[in-house]
Each structure stands twice: as structure tokens, then as C-alpha cells.
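Weekly modeling sync, notes
Attendees: S.R. (lead), two postdocs, one rotation student

Agenda item 3: backlog of single-chain predictions. S.R. asked that every request posted to the team notebook include the full sequence so nobody has to chase files. The rotation student volunteered to paste the first one in as an example of the format we agreed on. Action items at the bottom.

Example entry:
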Amino acid sequence: MVVFEPGAEIPARQGPLQPEDACKDARDLRISTLENELLTEREYLQSIIEEQEETNEEMQSANEEIQSASEELQSINEEL
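Predicted structure, as returned to the notebook:
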């Protein structure tokens, strides 16, 4: 059962759209657009960070392999 109480009504818009309403709508649209752009940029930057971390791990692994090979060559060199 739904009961409507007097005074709880939302007033209907009277007359044409006022300039301040249009400005508010344009501002709200701009804010929404900027928020979407910000979210897109954050996601892009996060993907770059993840890619950079992956590259760093690969470089660290390659560096460890090179160090190991260098130590092995140094050991062989000392034997000779």
C-alpha cells in the first residue's frame, strides 16, 4: 500500500530552462567528462606501471644470469 502525504510532492519545473540551469547542466556534463577522462588515464597509468614492473623483473633476472655467467667465466679464467 502506498500513501501519499501532502507537501511531499516535488515541484514540477515551471517555464523554460533558465540560463543558470543550463550552466549547471553544462558544468555537470563537464565534470562527468573530466571524471571519465581521469578514470581512463588512471587505468592507462596503472597498465604502464604494471608493464614497467614486469620489465624490471625481467631485467633483474637477466642481470642475475649475466652475473652468474661472469662469475663462471672468472672462475674458468683463474683455473687457466
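Discussion: group reviewed the output briefly. DSSP finds one helix and no strands in the chain.
Action items: rotation student to repeat for the remaining queue; S.R. to check formatting next week.
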